[in-house]
Design brief:
Elements lengths: L10 E2 L2 H11 L6 E5 L7 H4 L5 E6 L2 H11 L5 E5 L7 H4 L7 E5 L5 H8 L7 E7 H8 L9 H7 L2 E9 L4 E2 L6 E8 L7 H16 L5 H7 L7 H11 L12 H13 L17
Parallel strand pairs: 2-3, 2-5, 3-4, 5-6
Antiparallel strand pairs: 1-8, 6-9, 7-9
Helix pairs in contact: 8-11, 10-11
């Protein structure tokens, strides 16, 4: 079956790596597993019969039909033909917060899938194979070139670690990039409220959009903030921060606290600018 470039299809053909990825998931007989992009069943074949319930999501109708033909008669396997970004994950799982997620994520929609997985209710853990450069961005530390909104968005709500590198030659067709398997474990209990998370996303999107500017200039001049000098200086003072620094020098914890202090100063994430204390200079 010819892979579809429009769906970002590159099939993992190295059986040893397939087994290692499934082993990294650590799924047992009592677990419910969601596999994203089951494709030709590279990971599926190592999961069928070893977990309590297996949900296979596949967008390609040809591959979904093959999965249904191979496993559709099993009571412990449920094949779903659809786009994971358009499906209600809570409806797919019996217990969404106990769910284990695994998948070889298409490179062209990696970030949306990452953020979708980290929407509440969050799974127990996820093992995902992503483009190596994306993994570097997810795992990036403050002060590095790769550090940005993606790192903050993931690291503020989950622990993330690199499991293994996967060379491009392990796939057919051979992609132009290498891959990395990462493990994501959402923090329990969540460190932020839903409203805190919304403000943090708005803050990180805004400051990294203007990542070459000092934080103080972004908070005063960006249309989604436009805060007064007094508010900005007050937040810097309460946080003990030097706002002449650029955004990549602030840790996820710094930005989590900054979003809260900004909310106390009148900022609501840029949704209702009328309520924001603005200074056009």
């Amino acid at each position: 079956m010819r892979p579809r470039r429009s769906l970002g299809q590159n099939f993992l053909v190295d059986a040893n790596l397939q087994r290692k990825i499934v082993e990294a998931l650590g799924a047992g007989p009592a677990d419910e597993v969601l596999e994203i992009g089951s494709g030709r069943g590279a990971l599926t074949r190592h999961l069928v019969g070893s977990v309590r319930r297996l949900v296979l999501v596949e967008l390609d109708h040809r591959l979904a039909a093959d999965l249904e033909e191979a496993h559709g008669e099993r009571d412990d396997v449920h094949v779903v033909h659809g786009d994971i970004l358009e499906l209600d994950r809570s409806a797919l799982a019996e217990d969404p917060e106990a769910l284990l997620v695994v998948g070889n994520i298409p490179y062209n929609i990696t970030s949306p899938i990452l953020f979708d997985i980290l929407e509440r209710p969050r799974p127990s853990r996820a093992i995902l194979m992503v483009q190596r450069e994306v993994a570097d961005r997810v795992l990036a530390a403050p002060g590095t070139r790769e550090y940005g909104a993606l790192a903050v968005g993931v690291q503020s709500v989950a622990r993330v670690e690199r499991v293994m590198h996967v060379p491009r030659k392990a796939f057919r067709p051979v992609p132009r990039v290498d891959s990395t398997v990462i493990r994501i474990v959402p923090l329990r209990p969540p460190p932020l409220t839903i409203e805190d998370e919304r403000r943090l996303r708005a803050l990180t999107r805004m400051i990294f959009q203007w990542r070459r500017k000092q934080i103080q200039k972004t908070l005063r001049r960006h249309p989604d903030a436009a805060l007064s000098r007094d508010v900005v200086e007050g937040v810097a003072r309460m946080g003990g921060w030097d706002f002449s620094r650029r955004p990549e020098t602030f840790t996820p914890q710094d930005l989590m606290r900054m979003a809260r202090l900004l909310a106390e100063g009148g900022w609501n994430g840029g949704v209702d600018r009328v309520a924001v204390n603005r200074d056009p200079t």
